[in-house]
TrEMBL record:
The keyword Membrane applies. GO terms for cellular component: membrane. Residues 104-489 form the Major facilitator superfamily (MFS) profile domain. Its main location: membrane. It is a multi-pass membrane protein. SUPFAM superfamilies: MFS general substrate transporter. It comes from Aspergillus eucalypticola (strain CBS 122712 / IBT 29274). This is MFS transporter. Residues 1-48 are annotated as: Disordered. Residues 12-38 have a biased composition (Polar residues).
Amino acid sequence: MASLRPGPTEAISVSSGSSSTPQYTPVSDRSENDASPNPNRPAAGSLRVQTAFSSDGESFTDDGFDEGYDSYEDVQPLSSSRISIPKYTKEEEDGIIKQFDRKLVPFLALLYLLSFLDRSNIGNAKIAGLADDLHLSSSQYEWLLTAFYITYILFEWMTLMYKLVPPHIYIALCVCGWGLVASLQSLATSFGALVFLRAALGITEAAFGPGVPFYLSLFYKREELAFRNGLFISAAPLASSFASSLAWIIVRVSDNGPIAPWRTLFLVEGFPSIVVAVFAWMLIPDTPGSASFLNPRQRAIAQLRMDELKPNHKPHQQQSPQRKSFNWKEVKKTLTDPKSYITAFMFFACNVAFSSMPVFLPTIIQDMGYTSLTSQALSAPPYLLSFLTVLLTSHLSDRTRTRSPYLIFHALLSATAYLAIALAGYFHSHLPPAIHVAIRYLAVYPATSGFFSAITLIITWTMDNRPANEGKGASVALLNIDTKVMVRP
């Protein structure tokens, strides 16, 4: 019996008729020998959507290809007048992209905001009484930071799990994991317990964050990817800004309460991730062709437009919906390519600032002579500017289809700002106190804006240069492993 609901990978064909109304044409699942004896009765099988576009003024060749819309890759014409793939317009494609922009990317950005919040709130907790209550020395506090990155390094390979495990299951487990660990930090009573929890937090966050740019590359073409990576990564400065503001409120409200402010901070910022994990399981699609918020035709088009970019894509063949085996050759090719290590070094240079600034900025501002509450408040504005800068830079990069000029500009901007901070500190005895503090604080704005934008472009550039999914995943893992090995906050 014919199925009346097209699947996400159903074939959609184009006829040369004058009507633009979709027509469902049964396609036989049986061989010619088993065909129905009645030639006027359609054979049982799956339904194909047949859509004609001649009424809207678009022109077609005899082979069924639309001359009015240029796809990203050149397609060889077929001799048949009907093709068994979805034919779509630019308006349809744009509509699908907007759906992903509204329902997928913001949710992933929310998850990254929560992860970055739980990762970096150790800096806010320190000046909220953590170091005093647990009697932590300066070296012990540094080990709390280092413990996170040790496990983060060791479990970077889990980026490849996005290819092996359905993403909706994998991401939901990661989110629930770090939410639980982050909340348990509020119960720590010793340095040893807190070190263990920080190490566990590194495992859960290494499994999620580094692989999201690869996951997004399954849904967006290379000329669309930078802005979406920007939307995702901009959650980091937004989280830092939000964390400072939230920390200020929590410390102020719970200062005289029964629970220490730093314990309340860990609990309030950690528990929401556990709740959001449930929604991650239900909302995150595994592939473009399985997005529940798209209709059947949109799912077929969303999958096809990404399949067209694959080197071995054959337009005249329907793509198999089954999961393909993991290609270890692409991983080996990535690991033996010198360009992978050059990009990793660039990422390392930017990540020195990216990793250390959020956890040290409240302390740096406090050392300028401000109180704990004022330091929490002054930590927020630089990250708010970074959030806006990342979005603007990534949008311009996609619009102009270039990465390097923006990358060079922001890297130099950040380096110059850090140099100004260092020189102001070195010559502090020769500067009036007000000028010294103003230079150091104001230079934080271009410093944070620069390295957050550079990080976004480097990750996107890496995705652009790897056609295979396994190569993309290995490249992102290599970026983060090399960086975390060389960077110790």
